[in-house]
Amino acid sequence: MSANWSDLRARTLSGLAMVAVGGFAIWWGGAVFGLLAALVVTLMVWELAQMTTPEGVSGLQAKALAALAGALTVLVLFVPNALTRIALLIPVIVGTAMPRRDRPIFAAYAFFVMATGYALIMLHHWIGALGILWLVAVVVASDVAGYFAGRAFGGPKFWPRFSPKKTWSGTVAGWVGAAGIGWLFYAMGMGSWVLIPLSPVIAFAGQMGDIAESAIKRRTGVKDSSSLIPGHGGLLDRFDALIGAVSILLLIYPLLPQNFFGG
Q1: All residues at 6 or more sequence positions from 37 whose CB lies less than 8 Å from its CB, including other chains
Q2: pLDDT in tens, 159-209
Q3: What is the pTM (predicted TM-score) of this model?
Q4: Burial (0-12, 13-18, 19+ Cβ within 10 Å), 111
Q5: Handedness of CA 76, 79, 85, 89 (dihedral sign)
Q6: Among residues 155, 211, 158, 200, which one has the least CA distance to residue 177?
């Protein structure tokens, strides 16, 4: 097997496992989905803290910070009020105050990680299970289309300074794949035509999330955020695009038609 495709089997198997677990949690909703979101937040904060912890500092700090982030996400799941929402900033503040390399980078990315966990829980209420499935499908389709097109066609790099593997062919293929997902959901009567142009916008934001995480890894000198997921690296490596996608959807959500997804 070509070196370009050497990781395909591991990526496929771990990807299918994530789809199965994530799909069940999304469809079940409620506490099940919220707890999965909290677990993902916990692991992503741990990875980010690990990457930005100076040498010689105990790894227990990163674990404690991650546990705090997860606990507060669970708290806001069961006690959703203004106070618990504000409390989601505590891991960002505490983590920034700890011994830390690149404090501004940690603070900014930790903020988006915490916001993503909260936003996923809220978006499940706003657009339902099918809406979350659409969001995830857009991110996955963009990633898969970009992976295969980039490996197959290569070509000029999209932003080599921060993401040396990402090509224009893969980036554009990601937009096309995302638009296809939007059209599919629209054709199946699950949303308005807005999904067709909206999906590539979500995909582009996801690609920017991917590049942002790549830039952090290059700055901190690591290949993967961790080795938790075979073929994918860590949770940040897998969900970095979701962070970008959720962020842009939250930003433009008030501007979207009320019935853009399912009425």
Answers
A1: 73, 77, 117, 120, 121
A2: 677 676 777 788 888 999 999 999 999 999 888 999 999 999 999 999 999
A3: 0.86
A4: middle
A5: negative
A6: 200
